[in-house]
Amino acid sequence: MSRDRVTDTQRRVLVIEDEGLLRTMLRDVLTAAGFSVLAVADAAAAARQFDEFDPDAILSDIDLGSGVSGLDLIVSLTKHAPYLGVVILSNYEVTADYRQRWLSRARYLRKSDVTDTAAVVSALEAVLTGAVDGAGVAAADAADLLAGLTSTQVQVLRMVAEGLSNAEIAERRGSTVGAVEHVLNRTFTALGLANDPTRNLRVMAARIYLEGAGRPGTSTVTSR
Question: 65 vs 1, 68, 69, 106, 139, CA distance in Å?
Fold first, then answer.
């Protein structure tokens, strides 16, 4: 494939999910979020329609029934199109071999998380803006980074991961937007995120939070 990777106004996401209701829900959620979506039921349909649809990212279930698995499909498609953002969806834990191979360039979502629209959209935004260039971190490393933050920094970062704007965070905390921006700037520095205009620091910081703490509301982060 040789498509010019100039960013389109509407980014394309290929969804591969064998459960009909979940496939339809993901298609509708992502379409409402502004993505162009092609949702198919199996690896064969994904491979057959891949070139014509030419996606920017794929969201694939691991277990696609009989035939090629979602992980094997991801291996094949990313060899063909290494620029792809990848979100892996399953009820099961990814094997150590695949974690070592894909964690730095893929997001992993449990099916129980897909009812949280923000979590799905955040995962796709993360892989579209940063995962392909190796910006991901292992969960243990992310947890260590979060442990070095103050309680205020963790609280603000959690709200960023929930998708809140600086104004919404300020309103919830009873502070000013300027104060929130100050906390975030110090948080980015503490997380070791360089000020790079080609990267979205909010997305990268949210990814670290999600890697280290899970979906907001599911765990407690111990800060210094």
Answer: 28, 8, 7, 22, 29
